[in-house]
Amino acid sequence: MKTIFSGIKPTGDLHLGNYFGALSQWVDLQHDHHSIFCVVDYHAITVPQDKKALHNNIIAIARSYLAAGIDPKKSIIFRQSDIKEHTELAWILNCTSARMSDLENMTQYKDAASKQINPSVGLFDYPILMAADILLYNTDTVPVGHDQLQHVELARDLAKRFNHDYGETFKIPSALIRSEGSRIMGLDDPTKKMSKSIGENNCISLNDSPEVATKKIMRAATDSDTVIKYDPANKPGISNLLTILSILENKKIKDLEKEFTDCGYGQFKQRIANSVSKFLTNFQEKAKHYSDEQVLTILADGQKQVEPLAATVLAKVRTQLGL
Ligand code: TRP
User: Fold this and answer.
1) If you average pLDDT over residues 35-44, what whole number do you get?
2) What is the count of structural domains for the chain?
3) pLDDT on residue 181
4) How far is the CA of 215 from the centre of ligand 1 (A)?
């Protein structure tokens, strides 16, 4: 069975884009993969975090994995900082295989650093820690959004370089990028990916009440046209809403276009609001099933399962280096 590994930073509520872009894909993959899903808390601290909020966010992300349908009997869910090998391997890769020029080229770093007056060294080094996450588990496949492709490619390059310089050690991973059809754009700016950092009305949080979500959808950007047609270049807002509806109701966009031929935007949005509300209510119901203690127990159990895997790979790395 192939191994998949992925993770999300515990930096706040997940939104609909995270759900369709990442979580829902993981849920499908777990049935025929050895699946490892990480709460990447060491990545979260590359930018300043409030102590209490971070602790709560770690539990909240793990709970979202569970509510989305990651089954702890099938998949491993664990917290990055519970496994010391992640930072150890990151340090080793820093020294052996990673070069300053690799990191200077990373778009996510350039983006994030431009928002900080004096960014942390950790923010710069972020992709190396991510490479360590992936390489520690002999990962075959990394399901991620398109924005993470550059990082997974770096992990591949580092693995190849290390194997070349020190002997066969790492499995070479590849990225699995979700299909374009599941890429959710911002509600108030449908030309960019949905993101909570753009603003409250840009995204629907998985914790939004149906009322709040409905308001955001009714306010979503459309166009001065009246036609409900999938045309991302000319009608990004309507196309994005069609994508959301097609995923939620499991219908083809073509069929939705037909269904809404003589329909106004208001009525179309109302239907999306209803579907989203149903989805959120269901998700939030499932999330409520897991107390903090239960989530922490699942994370502790995950830690036990991944510990020997990480230790084996790191021991091999140390041997190859003569440490
Ligand atoms: N950098 C990823 C993101 O921002 C999160 C992440 C950290 C990750 N380590 C990973 C994703 C390992 C996949 C595999 O989305």
Assistant:
1) 98
2) 2
3) 62
4) 31
